[in-house]
Amino acid sequence: MTAFDRHTAEALDLVAAARQPRPLVSDPLAGRRDSRLAEIRDALLLAGLAVLALAAALLEEVAA
Q1: Per-residue pLDDT band at 46 (split at 50, 70, 90)
Q2: What is the mean pLDDT of residues 35-62?
Q3: Are 43 and 18 in contact (CB under 8 A)?
Q4: SS3 sequence of the chain
Q5: Residue 36 class from Cβ within 10 Å (0-12 exposed, 13-18 middle, 19+ buried)?
Q6: Is it the case that residue 27 has pLDDT exceeding 60?
Q7: Are residues 27 and 33 in contact, defined by beta-carbon separation less than 8 angstroms?
């Protein structure tokens, strides 16, 4: 498995994790329970991590 394949698999795992429903969580910034906002925030963070993983894969591929 190449580095590109490994990073792509990691990115796909992050995207799959972002699509999973989340339990109710407390949002300390809002001071109340709001599962939908926390779910959106988590999904955006995981999507950002997936983009970073793909960028790392591309950089490794170019450097190789």
Answers
A1: confident
A2: 81
A3: yes
A4: CCHHHHHHHHHHHHHHHHHCCCCCCEECCCCEECHHHHHHHHHHHHHHHHHHHHHHHHHHHHHC
A5: exposed
A6: no
A7: yes
Name beta bridge partners: 9: none
Average pLDDT, whole number, for the chain? 74
User: Would you call 25 exposed, middle or buried from its count of C-beta atoms within 10 A (0-12, 13-18, 19+)?
Assistant: middle
Residue 31 pairs with which residues in a beta bridge?
Answer: none
Residue 50 CB coordination number (10 Å): 21
Asked if the model's pLDDT at residue 14 lies above 80, the reply is no
